[in-house]
């Protein structure tokens, strides 16, 4: 669209959508998605492009502010991309997320009469994550104030998050409200120590430099596991950093180093070297405990994960003699949480490291009724599992955002478990799959769960019953 033909219009925004956008309509009924607008707001919008019958646009000016607008607590809000809705009242966030699940059920699954339970709010809306990854960079995203200044090289260094839409730039984070304050202290300490010792921050443009990433993991006991990703070995620096960190932060239980000479930041195919402390930190979710190592897959909101698992347990309503199939089981945390009230738990996950963690954690909880298999869910040897363990009374599926593969849908129809629990992180694909399962299963109820306040992410748990 040429500059002359670009149009503007007033838009009334009603709801939130994907990737932190708000959705609204013009007075003529055109649907528009805009970044930076809020539900309840009326604004002038510049239309940019049209796709599949709906428009995307840019916010020009607010005509009537939203009654749900609040002041964001974080100075980095709107820049770093870590939070989408810090400026939206939390009660309205919950309402909007619940509406997203309801809309998906009606519009996609075509189940208008399903019982949608009230969304489960988060206990804490700040400092709730147990893992964050920060990036070192020589190319800091400059604020408007900094753009007009002559900065020395040290002032151009960053340790923080990639700027959305500009992967070459990193927003330097001084205080993040996603993980604990101690995480902020550790990150800032590492950055200052690195600058003091004049070590190179990584240059992603030139693929050069020493310091690449800092990952901080924590548990509800306020213990910390730190992982430093570096491009090459430097024993003198890593030893000095370790000694300073351990002295300054008694809460640090483990420190790992991983050498990454590759052009990407993926670490799971690399070796992690422990240079201090324990192999793991331990997380507790009610009666279950889990070892968290440098490569462990685990729910990133521990307190809300416990609530999620309590909900799944309530939906499962176990009597003690059930055989549970747990597809896409990850580290087996759901199955391990339920296992004490079941006869057997059979978990399937395609990532080998996750299954290794699942077996380790089953042993940690002294569970002998948990059996875990490495397999893609769509390729699992169903007949072999039935022969070894029997038919399931309950199946739990917790797929990635893309939802269930069509072959898994057919598996579920074939297995005919009396009860099915579908845990989803994407209401749209969950609704699609519920529609595909209609001929075999009835949706009894569904409950949204807010695992990640201030973001567009939402979990929902559906309870299904086999049709007779």
Protein architecture, described:
The strands form four sheets. The chain has an eight-stranded mixed sheet with strand order 6-21-22-20-19-16-17-18, sandwiched between helices. The termini are far apart. The radius of gyration is 24 Å and the shape is globular. The protein has 468 residues and is of the alpha/beta class. Helix 1 packs parallel to helix 10.
Write the layout of secondary structure elements.
Layout: E1 8-16, E2 21-26, E3 31-35, E4 42-51, E5 54-64, H1 90-107, E6 115-116, E7 131-137, H2 144-147, E8 158-163, E9 166-172, H3 181-196, E10 211-218, E11 224-230, H4 235-248, E12 252-259, E13 272-277, E14 281-285, E15 288-292, H5 302-316, E16 323-327, H6 333-338, E17 344-349, H7 352-364, E18 370-374, H8 382-389, E19 394-397, H9 406-415, E20 419-424, H10 427-436, E21 441-449, E22 459-466
Parallel strand pairs: 3-5, 6-21, 11-12, 16-17, 16-19, 17-18, 19-20
Antiparallel strand pairs: 1-2, 1-4, 2-3, 4-5, 7-8, 7-10, 8-9, 10-11, 12-13, 14-15, 20-22, 21-22
Helix pairs in contact: 1-10
